Amino acid sequence: MSRQQAQLAVAHDVVSGVARAGSENQDPVKAAAEIYRALAPCEPTCVVFYCCTRYPLELLSRELSRYFPDITVIGCTSAGEITPLGYCKHSISAFGLSHQSFAVESVLIENLTAFTKNDADVLVASMMDNLRKKAVTPTPIDKHCFAMTLLDGLSIREEQVIAALSTSLHEVPLVGGSAGDDQHFVDTQVFYNGKFYSDAAVFMLVNTTCMFEVFSQHHLAPQQEKLVVTQVSPNLRVVQEFNAEPAALEYCRINNLKLEDLNPRTFAMYPLAVQIGDHLYIRSIQQVNDDLSLTFFCAIDAGVVLTQMTSPGLLSHTSMIFNLLEESVGEIQLLIGFDCVHRRAEVDEYQLETEMSALYREHNVIGFNTYGEQINGLHLNHTFTGVAIGYPRDEFQPEHTYS
């Protein structure tokens, strides 16, 4: 079977109100048409997509709006896509959620710098009220809901926005990802109902009859070396010094690297983590600067102790994640995946794309490579984060299903 035939076969596998799609066509008119043909059979109440920045975004916006004129369409730019075929680049991936099995309420949050905890309280309360009116499960609906965010990945506001929303959501789990731009680090955007936006986030509440599990995992293990942040500009996520030495030079020292070795691939292969309680949270480096400072993808502050990390095996760990999720939700009909761009770099470095793509195909993953992942109130790096959606719960089994 050819790559294109395989794509069509998988994209049209519509079950229990979910459809998955992907296109590698570089013409946005044709790509949007392919996405529509794959998703339309499930009669979606919502479409979510992730696209590379090579597409002319204004034209892509117009075409998607033309095909899906009366439903919610959200999305963002990416640093690599996960389609029905697995890992892709310079493509678009998408999924649709049917109105029979899902109810969705969404909003665009602009001017992230001004977003406050009070704004989150008002917003979440209003959205939950609206969602209850069209819910597909009986009240109380909270245990049958999850929240999803897509954020401008260069806004440097993910922590504040996610913390505010998560607190306001109470027991409703939140999951999401930070938009990318193919590691140019110039312009990352989110999409909401016809238009792309910077300095913005899309926030969505989903009520469903289906089993689901929100998750976040990393595969890295700690080593002995430590770096203490001794000089930092926290508002910019820029570290000037580790251990009272230029940050880039100290990072090179503990990893036996030369300064000229530092690039996105190096940062992916030589990660760092901060320990909070019993857990290690990765703090990924975005880039090295001319003054030998290092810019991070995540929040960083003075006095933070970072631990050198290593990878004992990404493929086996990812397989374990899927096994655990299937124990929780049964067969996965859609996994909305937020896969850190540094995981993608490791896949490329060790030539694991074929094996990882097979895993993702088998478990129906649709997603993108992010500049950061969100789980409840946390903004993370170097994780595979998402929500696995199974089939409808026994008490909500529909009388008719899609074929």
Automatic annotation (TrEMBL):
Domain of life here? Bacteria
Q: Where is the FIST domain?
A: 43-246
**Recorded coiled-coil stretches:** none
The UniProt record lists the FIST C-domain domain at 247-377
Concerning InterPro entries, the annotation shows: FIST_C, FIST_domain_N
Pfam families, per this entry?
FIST (PF08495), FIST_C (PF10442)
- The protein's name is GfdT protein
What species is this protein from?
Alteromonas confluentis
